[in-house]
Amino acid sequence: MDLTYTDEQKAFRDEVRAFLDDKLPKRQRDKVAGGKRLTKADYEEWHAILNERGWLGVTWPAEFGGTGWDAVQRHIFEEETTRAHAPRIVPFGLNMLGPVLMKFGSKAQQDHYLPRILNGDDWWCQGYSEPGAGSDLASVKTTAVREGDHYIVNGQKTWTTLGQYADKIFCLVRTSKEGKPQQGISFLLIDMDSPGVEVRPIVLIDGEAEVNEVWLSDVKVPVENLVGEENKGWTYAKYLLTHERTNIAGVGFAQAGLENLKRIAGLEKAGGRPLIENPFFAAKMAQVEIDLMAMATTNLRTIAAAAAGQAPGAESSMLKIKGTVIRQEINALTRQAVGPFAMPFVSEALDEGSNVEPVGPDYALPATQAYFNNRKLSIYGGSNEVQRQIISKTILEL
Amino acid sequence: MDLTYTDEQKAFRDEVRAFLDDKLPKRQRDKVAGGKRLTKADYEEWHAILNERGWLGVTWPAEFGGTGWDAVQRHIFEEETTRAHAPRIVPFGLNMLGPVLMKFGSKAQQDHYLPRILNGDDWWCQGYSEPGAGSDLASVKTTAVREGDHYIVNGQKTWTTLGQYADKIFCLVRTSKEGKPQQGISFLLIDMDSPGVEVRPIVLIDGEAEVNEVWLSDVKVPVENLVGEENKGWTYAKYLLTHERTNIAGVGFAQAGLENLKRIAGLEKAGGRPLIENPFFAAKMAQVEIDLMAMATTNLRTIAAAAAGQAPGAESSMLKIKGTVIRQEINALTRQAVGPFAMPFVSEALDEGSNVEPVGPDYALPATQAYFNNRKLSIYGGSNEVQRQIISKTILEL
Amino acid sequence: MNFQLTEERQMLQDSLRRYLADSVSPEMLAQATTSAAGHSETLWKGLAEMGVIGALFPEDKGGFGGAGFDLSVVFEEVGRAGVFEPLAETGILAGGLLAELGGEAQADRVEAIIGGAIIGFAHSEPGARYDLEHVETKAKKDSDGWRITGRKSLVTHAGVAEAFLVTARTGGETTETDGISAFLVPAGEGVDIRDYPLNGGGRAAEVTLDVTVPADALIGPEGGAYAAIERAAARATCALCAEALGLMETIRGLTVDYLKNRKQFGQPIGKFQALQHRMADMLVEIEQARSAVINLAGHVDADRTTRERHVSATKNLIGRAGRLVVEESIQMHGGIGMTEEYALGHLVKRLTMVDHRFGDADHHLERFIRLSAA
Amino acid sequence: MNFQLTEERQMLQDSLRRYLADSVSPEMLAQATTSAAGHSETLWKGLAEMGVIGALFPEDKGGFGGAGFDLSVVFEEVGRAGVFEPLAETGILAGGLLAELGGEAQADRVEAIIGGAIIGFAHSEPGARYDLEHVETKAKKDSDGWRITGRKSLVTHAGVAEAFLVTARTGGETTETDGISAFLVPAGEGVDIRDYPLNGGGRAAEVTLDVTVPADALIGPEGGAYAAIERAAARATCALCAEALGLMETIRGLTVDYLKNRKQFGQPIGKFQALQHRMADMLVEIEQARSAVINLAGHVDADRTTRERHVSATKNLIGRAGRLVVEESIQMHGGIGMTEEYALGHLVKRLTMVDHRFGDADHHLERFIRLSAA
């Protein structure tokens, strides 16, 4: 038992810190810390900086141009970049499609797509969810019918995050109606420029349009864009979901959120005293901090097991539940902290270079938006209800 | 809309208060307030005092020797007696069997049993639950087989409260195995002195033996002890349960509990200050008080509807859930309040006249016992899970 | 003891509910929210014509209601429909204070309000958070009348107000209850408005005052308006809590419908017991919220301690129940519950913002403890 | 970073778990609880022979462990079995202080403790609640040595202790940290014991002291024992939290078994989704409790602020998780869960009492805030 990093791990952490001090643009740092709106160019700039250092393929093995880091190193990198308020790495190409192609893609697909992901030539988005399906992924209705050397794809995808920026989409499509719903699914790569692809933004209750509906009408997709075998897509999809679940606890986000909360609670005054000194508020903050301290250790335990080669099991479901509960509680407390200034909705003030001033403190609107936006945490990636079901089945065997 | 009592109701309340000032023995008041152990004689004494005044048959119509009070009067009586720390009225004869006999019993049964209940000649107990059945009452396994002018009863009842004091037990028994489980049940009155009846105490985690197992082995019961018709017992049982659910919210108990909690929190010192001034503790107390203020009004709304002749519906399920949650929270806070002295278990100190002194303050052990004992509130009388199911079905229609 | 509405209130409830059900749609609300006015002028006119504003005033002030239960009946329906008209600002706060403090001189203006004139309530200030007595804005007597200087914050519906009931200090320190006076200040020069939309619908403004008003703009006793302000705030809080209850009822209806109709894993999700039980728990809390609103409505005219104790108890409970209803209803809807387009979005935002007005759950818990100890 | 037990600790865990599984039964616990000794002499002997007491002491004090993870390994098993032996009192508190403060002069006594001698820890007092520095008991130097007078409360296993590590004030005021000294006081004349059973098993006593001990009964520096007492209490709290974790694990096992085997409405109740989800939530909290114990065990030897911050964080979390596990496990069992006879009863009582020792969840929440601000 040893809760501290080894000397090598500490050295690695220092290396990451030095890199961030040196290379993370202050402009980006301030935008992320201040809850400002990030543009496509912002993400691309940060990806390019990381790629130059060879640190963009965080989860990738070295043979594909990735870092080859183990789970602990990935955790340290994640922790440090989050604390430094770096933009997140957009995960769709890097953490989702990449690993699927490495494991199930053809040599030609790997050679073509993987370098393009690292170089920022393609911006990928995810075509998994469909309207009316939610966590029930196997009920895919979008069809792909083979015609000669093409598939003709028809259907609708939804909750496609940052689809408005994407050049490409990886999709689950139905290629067969026989057998169980899971059996007739294939995994297809589609060019967003293809005729028949239409992207419509979905505005969420925080006022932002980060997700989209993607309509596919008679879209012609070359058969070489099929990943792996036809009707085996469910296997690849599940593999991808396991990868999606790394960093599912969101410890770094929670820690950054808690720091932000403490800062705000130190600035806000309630009854003439800093809010942070109000015993009711201090109690709630301390409670969530204590929960986070424990959850961070649960997370490290899982990471250490992964680094030792154990496959992640239902522990990730526990981390998902507790991690989202903690982050959502931090969001709720931050919203509470900003007081009456949670009310104004001056969206323009979040744009870089906008000359619209926020109403009240500049942290107020981001606090409210984060509260509303992060309700998604317990819904997506397998809702917390689905996670409870997994725990009940696989750990408790009920 | 009027939240206050009418002048008549106020006058009635004053009458009840005057009666309690005058007739409730101080000895009993102190025992109840102090969480001391009540004996059979204590209950009998209080019943006799009430009966002398004509106030024992609280829920009974005047024609059977009851008070004939409406729902509001019953509520006032309940509230005042609880606040005055009177012993509770033991409900099995008075609030459970009584109403069943009045509605479904024969004239002979009514003439025989009802006066005996009021006069304290019979102490009744309830034979509903069976081992392994819990809230699933319809799964009655105890059998009653007709042989001539007797039934031969075999089986086992459990959770029989104060069965150790009882002369008689009313039982649900299976007289037919045909049809749905609900269809073959009968309602039988059994003399506890009959050969083959055996009572075994169940000690609960508070160390007390208030409930019992009742074993029935070839017990001969005269057919005239059948209430209503054979195989119609489920109807009577359900009718009884509706009656049991009056005062299901336990507002009076909660209010008395909250007062006791405040008193203790005023006496206990934490970090040199009275616990009641500790903001964390004060916050929890205030929270539960606020919840109770609202629940008391929900209760009055239900009572007013009942007084206006509306049948109680799933509202009683909502009162059951919220009422038990509130009382259990008060119990938990009281246990918390007594600090380290929650630990000693000096049971003898609760007996009247015992010369064993409690360890620490005299309110400590009763606080711990009440916490453990009242875990039952959310289990019995239809567990809170069953109540949620009722709400889901009847109100939400899910 | 009687929990039935009077016949008059029952009629008001029925007709208001019918009117709003007929007039309000998600599209109409979306339009009102993005309009420059920040509310629906048609609806406002309709409400005035129905006598809804009059129901907020007692008979001796030209209305036909004004009791706690009149407020709760009206605002439960307002919440149910999710509308954001300047009813509370004009009818309870500015109008209520004009009626109470203004005497005969303001009777015409109260009549105009009942007819639909919009008067803003410019009271809270940037540093006040939820402290009602926090007033820095100054009013100084001079030869022309009163010169008022200061900043007011989050003045709801300021953009459409023809005048403002402005509170300002004529004496005392920033957080004292003594020394606060009320003035009627017409919109226009010297009253600078920066207005903006609100989360949950409607608009508000930061108002900068540097204006001179005549001597008779003083409403009520010089330096002695606080008690009336606190009473008006209690009534507005009662209205807001009733509005929250109405929001909860509509959210509940949407959620139950969704549970019945939405299928997943081959059956309506309302057949999943875990969701059934959580929905039942939500219902229990909404019932608590209803009782809390009744408690407050029944005590808005009680003595100060009783009234304010109920204000804080009810606002605390509404804050807690509101958060539960918001979070559970979104969660049970899943992704669709987070979209701006679906009806739920507007309602949960509005309900969330209830906790940011007139003091959040913690503010009132602390206040309840203080008032109970007194 | 490494979360594997060392080979030695893994062996200790395995053998202790096996030994307790073989030796402990509900009947045996019931008998121990009602016996005059208030614990099982056989078990105690067995533990000593296995070297479990030695595992609580570092090598330079004659043991072969003594680190935080040694405590947590041992006490998780103690909790798992639901036993109540004087391990913490003797091995961590009295014994730990003798080893730390007593020097060479006490080495023999520490060896005796490791061999099974029972020494009580007479520290807390009737008015202290959870304040470690609250000591009123006085010690005065006189020609015969030290005269100690005062009252100690809830001295666990006092009835079987051959001596007590007694804390007493040789200077300072009741709640000061300075001025507290430690003494070794033999049981017997001048040490009056009123002993009684405890909720959750075992016995404790109120101890009245009016006794004179020789000058060399003073253990450690005069008036300067507090820092060591606080360290020992941190270690005992770590042990208690690990014990709570063990209790939770056994309760979890009992509850899952019950859900699988118990049928109602025609199926195992574990098939009801509402219960499945609640059981999953309980599991999540037990996982949190496990991590909290690891955090504390890993920091019991850290600098004071770090150590005590972890003490308070972990004890707070254990208190909250413990209450949830107690209440949910009883609820999911239904009536049977409330009976003394069924194995659950003893465990939930013991787990409940954890919150009443060394400070409850609120006490530590407040302390965590204070320590974090410092």
TrEMBL record, chains A, B:
Alphabetized UniProt keyword annotations = FAD, Flavoprotein, Oxidoreductase
This protein's cofactor list reads:
FAD
Is Flavoprotein given among the entry's keywords? yes
Q: Where is the Acyl-CoA dehydrogenase/oxidase C-terminal domain?
A: 231-395
Coiled-coil zones: none
Q: Which residues form the Acyl-CoA dehydrogenase/oxidase N-terminal domain?
A: 6-121
State any single GO MF term. flavin adenine dinucleotide binding
Q: Which residues form the Acyl-CoA oxidase/dehydrogenase middle domain?
A: 125-202
- Any single Gene Ontology cellular-component annotation: plasma membrane
Which is a Pfam family this sequence falls into? Answer: Acyl-CoA_dh_N
- Read off the InterPro entries from this record: Acyl-CoA_Oxase/DH_mid-dom (IPR006091), Acyl-CoA_Oxase/DH_mid-dom_sf (IPR046373), AcylCo_DH-like_C (IPR036250), AcylCo_DH/oxidase_C (IPR009075), AcylCoA_DH/ox_N (IPR013786), AcylCoA_DH/ox_N_sf (IPR037069), AcylCoA_DH/oxidase_NM_dom_sf (IPR009100), Mycobact_Acyl-CoA_DH (IPR052161)
The source's superkingdom equals: Bacteria
Gene3D superfamilies named among the record's database cross-references: Acyl-CoA dehydrogenase/oxidase, N-terminal domain (1.10.540.10), Butyryl-CoA Dehydrogenase, subunit A, domain 2 (2.40.110.10), Butyryl-CoA Dehydrogenase, subunit A, domain 3 (1.20.140.10)
Q: Which family does it belong to?
A: Belongs to the acyl-CoA dehydrogenase family.
Descriptive protein name: Acyl-CoA dehydrogenase
Q: What is the species of this protein?
A: Citreimonas salinaria
Automatic annotation (TrEMBL), chains C, D:
What InterPro entries does the database record attribute to this sequence?
Acyl-CoA_Oxase/DH_mid-dom, Acyl-CoA_Oxase/DH_mid-dom_sf, AcylCo_DH-like_C, AcylCo_DH/oxidase_C, AcylCoA_DH/ox_N, AcylCoA_DH/ox_N_sf, AcylCoA_DH/oxidase_NM_dom_sf
Q: Could you list this entry's UniProt keywords, alphabetically sorted.
A: FAD, Flavoprotein, Oxidoreductase
Annotated GO molecular function terms are: acyl-CoA dehydrogenase activity; flavin adenine dinucleotide binding
Any one Pfam family here would be: Acyl-CoA_dh_M
Q: Where is the Acyl-CoA dehydrogenase/oxidase N-terminal domain?
A: 6-109
Keyword Glycoprotein present in the record's keywords: the answer is: no
**PANTHER family reported for this sequence:** ACYL-COA DEHYDROGENASE (PTHR43884), ACYL-COA DEHYDROGENASE FADE28 (PTHR43884:SF20)
Into which family does the record put it? Belongs to the acyl-CoA dehydrogenase family.
Entry protein name = Acyl-CoA dehydrogenase
Which species is the source of this protein?
A: Citreimonas salinaria
